């Protein structure tokens, strides 16, 4: 429902100015900046100084020559970011170039496959070679592949079945970067090189990007960000993006669907040329590589299917509006592309009719009689594409690890805004930080305002306490549930403190209550029941992290909306606190939180944001005829058990054996946490309320130094 609502509301968030092409471009600036940020394409690129031809004393850079001598193929690289290069092939026509093209293969294809130097791609789709034969300079970068060969750490002896794309994605996402953003930077660095060549030649040859499937995504995103790109071809990717949560996790972009469906991204290409090849054959994917001996089976599920034609048609229709609106003011500056649909099942992408038509619209007509010459044999001896792939993967991993090592500086600068000169000033100044972290890291929802409508039933009756199952309304179709334990010696009107006792991963409230012999007791030792025996009122909520891929799917659906699991868990606790505060035996000023494992994660992500002094505006309803302002209760203290550590490193490090990059918890990564708030900063948001960490020396959650 929320994804559908985002689609309905998306257009209202855009303020495009169609009064002129210049005004239109200016109105897109903030959206481009937002888009650049959410795909993690934010680091300064190394200035272009020319392509580097890869040659040694035993091997020339020349890889092959066309059979008719019309173009040559060279092994090249070009700098992108500090320590990051793009590496691939450069096709140079013998005659003066007519255009410069970045040709982007699918992630399952090597550059050699679309040049015709390796098997695996139908000859009709050797589009890099065709473009060179038609007179274009062509750069073909290597994409991070869907193999899993290098997804792990040999020094630790730990490898996974994650694709290389997911392996790079996991730690990058935690640092506000993305495998998509890194590869867009590689494309734009190629555009930097082509711009440099245009300047050196004294010509302004058109620059285009053309890609298939994963390469189509990169072509679309790159052209949306950089107006130096005169034309783009997106083949086998463009469609409505509501189901992005079903695609591989390396396409998961935080907040994407709030503002950016494919059609909206395309609007940032207008009035330049955009051609959509809707539904050619593309490599399809049923999931990650199958686990093999010696590799952990923790990769995220996700599929890639041939584009649904109806979905593509709808997306094309939505995007075409922007070119049409610019027609009357843009004149010849408006370059209408076209969309190609196939009703047969065997059409390969980027065949000659596509490339020739694009070149024609960019100002160069290819004679119909011209048949592209085949490329000669690969002259390299002992060339292994996997060696190049390993270099490309390692560079991105190393770049992310450097970001990780330096991320504390950004967090320190952010939290230096808090005024520590007095408790009062700290509380006041930290409120802005709390709101920023809530919005950027958690994803804040509107406060629940519907009546909780509590439903209870007795489920336990022991000598020391009585237990009630509780159900509370939070939002329409969303409830909060748990088990309330009331000590049997409570006297009428007596007020006692409450401890909210939170279970961990795959747990249920009874795990915190059940006694010796039960599965839950091994981990929780019945701490909710033990506290009730000592006279505390306790409440054990059911949190969302149960059901394996079911709750992880909720996270996948939520991330493109700029939300996380805790976007829902915090309001559930808010409603729970408000209800607990109404109970006659509850001291509303002494409601504490105590969570174990994933409950410990909750301890640093819920109580800090349910701070004292919060109010909520309750609209009028049948039960409350007048709108009102309600003071909200807060957690008076928080205890984090068996979870507290250097959380960002635990998520993003590829060098630590207990890092989540090796495990099945693919939902655990939080967008840009490394530059927003680690556990230390989240704990600071509890101040001046007490915050406690419970740590077992042999607990594998981290090391003593991290916890301390």
Give the helices and strands, then pairings.
Elements (H helix, E strand, L loop, with lengths): L1 H9 L10 H18 L13 E2 L8 E4 L5 E11 L2 E10 L5 E6 L6 H5 L11 H7 L2 E6 L10 E2 L4 E2 L4 H11 L4 H23 L5 E6 L1 H12 L5 E5 L20 H4 L2 H6 L5 E5 L31 H22 L8 E2 L11 H10 L23 H31 L7 H20 L12 E7 L3 E11 L2 E10 L8 E7 L18 H4 L2 H7 L3 E5 L7 H10 L6 H16 L5 E11 L1 H8 L9 E4 L9 E4 L5 E5 L5 H6 L26 H6 L6 E4 L9 H4 L1
Parallel strand pairs: 5-6, 5-9, 9-10, 10-11, 11-12, 16-17, 16-18, 18-21, 21-22
Antiparallel strand pairs: 1-3, 2-3, 3-4, 4-6, 7-8, 13-14, 14-15, 15-17, 19-20
Helix pairs in contact: 5-12, 6-7
CATH superfamily grouping of the largest domain: Alpha/Beta hydrolase fold, catalytic domain
Our Rg estimate from Cα atoms comes to 29 Å
Q: How many strands?
A: 22
Q: What structural class results from the helix and strand content?
A: alpha/beta
Number of domains: 2
What's the story with the biggest beta sheet?
10 strands, mixed
State the separation between the terminal residues, measured CA to CA. 43 Å
Strand content: 15-25%
Shape: elongated
**Count of alpha and pi helical runs:** 21
What fraction, in percent, of the residue positions are helical?
25-40%
The CATH top-level class label of the largest domain:
Alpha Beta
- The CATH architecture of the largest domain would be 3-Layer(aba) Sandwich
Unreliable segments of 5+ consecutive residues? none
What value does the average pLDDT take? 96
CATH fold category name of the largest domain: Rossmann fold
């Amino acid at each position: 429902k929320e994804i559908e609502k985002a689609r309905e509301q998306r257009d209202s968030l855009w303020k495009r100015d169609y009064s002129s092409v210049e005004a239109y471009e200016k109105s897109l600036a903030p959206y481009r900046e937002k888009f650049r940020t959410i795909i993690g394409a934010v680091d300064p690129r190394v200035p272009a100084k020319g392509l580097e031809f890869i040659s040694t004393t035993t091997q020339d850079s020349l890889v092959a020559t066309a059979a008719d001598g019309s173009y040559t193929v060279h092994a090249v690289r070009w700098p992108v970011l500090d320590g990051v290069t793009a590496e691939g092939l450069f096709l140079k026509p013998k005659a003066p170039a007519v255009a410069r093209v970045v040709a982007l293969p699918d992630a399952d294809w090597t550059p050699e496959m679309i040049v015709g130097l390796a098997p695996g791609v139908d000859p009709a789709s050797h589009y890099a070679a065709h473009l060179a034969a038609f007179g274009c300079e062509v750069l073909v970068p290597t994409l991070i592949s869907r193999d899993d060969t290098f997804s792990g750490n040999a020094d630790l002896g730990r490898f996974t079945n994650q694709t290389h794309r997911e392996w790079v994605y996991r730690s990058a996402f935690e640092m506000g970067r993305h495998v998509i953003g890194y590869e867009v930077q590689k494309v734009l660095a190629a555009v930097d090189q082509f711009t440099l060549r245009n300047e050196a030649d004294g010509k302004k040859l058109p620059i285009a990007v053309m890609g298939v499937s994963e390469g189509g995504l990169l072509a679309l995103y790159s052209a949306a960000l950089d107006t130096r790109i005169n034309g783009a071809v997106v083949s086998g990717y463009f469609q409505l993006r509501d189901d992005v949560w079903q695609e591989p996790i390396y396409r998961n972009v935080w907040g994407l669907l709030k503002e950016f469906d494919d059609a909206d991204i395309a609007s940032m290409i207008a009035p330049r040329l955009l051609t959509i090849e809707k539904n050619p054959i593309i490599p399809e994917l049923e999931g990650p590589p199958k686990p093999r001996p010696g590799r952990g089976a923790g990769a995220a599920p996700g599929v890639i299917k041939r584009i649904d034609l109806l979905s593509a048609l709808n997306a094309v229709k939505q995007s075409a509006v922007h070119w049409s609106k610019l027609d009357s003011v843009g004149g010849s500056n408006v370059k209408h592309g076209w969309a190609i649909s196939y009703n047969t099942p065997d059409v390969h992408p980027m065949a000659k009719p596509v490339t020739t038509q694009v070149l024609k619209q960019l100002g160069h007509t290819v004679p119909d009689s011209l048949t592209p010459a085949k490329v000669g044999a690969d002259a390299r001896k002992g060339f292994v594409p996997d060696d190049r792939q390993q270099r490309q993967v390692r560079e991105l991993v190393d770049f992310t690890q450097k970001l990780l090592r330096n991320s504390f500086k950004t967090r320190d600068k952010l939290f230096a805004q808090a005024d520590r000169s007095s408790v009062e000033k700290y509380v006041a100044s930290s409120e802005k930080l709390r709101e920023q972290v809530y919005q950027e890291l958690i994803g804040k929802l509107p406060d629940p305002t519907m009546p909780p409508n509590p439903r209870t039933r007795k489920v336990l009756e022991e000598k020391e306490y009585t237990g009630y199952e509780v159900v509370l309304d939070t939002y329409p179709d969303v409830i909060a549930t748990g088990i309330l334990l009331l000590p049997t010696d409570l006297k009428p009107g007596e007020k006692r403190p409450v401890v909210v006792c939170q279970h961990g991963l795959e747990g249920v409230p009874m795990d915190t209550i059940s006694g010796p012999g039960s599965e839950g007791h091994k981990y929780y030792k019945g701490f909710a029941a033990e506290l009730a025996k000592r006279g505390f009122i306790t409440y054990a909520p059911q949190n969302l992290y149960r059901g394996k891929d079911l709750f992880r799917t909720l996270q996948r659906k939520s991330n493109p909306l700029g939300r996380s699991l805790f976007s829902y868990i915090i309001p559930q606790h808010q409603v729970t606190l408000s209800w607990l505060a109404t109970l006659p035996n509850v001291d509303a000023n002494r409601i504490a939180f105590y969570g174990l494992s994933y409950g410990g994660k909750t301890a640093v992500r819920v109580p800090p944001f349910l701070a004292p002094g919060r109010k909520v505006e309750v609209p009028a309803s049948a039960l409350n005829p007048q709108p009102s302002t309600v003071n909200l209760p807060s957690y008076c203290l928080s205890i984090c058990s068996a979870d507290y550590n250097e959380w960002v490193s635990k998520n993003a490090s590829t060098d630590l054996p207990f890092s989540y990059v090796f495990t099945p918890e693919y939902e655990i990564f939080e967008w840009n946490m490394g530059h927003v708030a680690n556990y230390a900063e989240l704990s600071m948001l509890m101040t001046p309320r007490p915050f406690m960490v419970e740590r077992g020396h042999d607990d594998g959650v981290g090391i003593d130094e991290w916890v301390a």
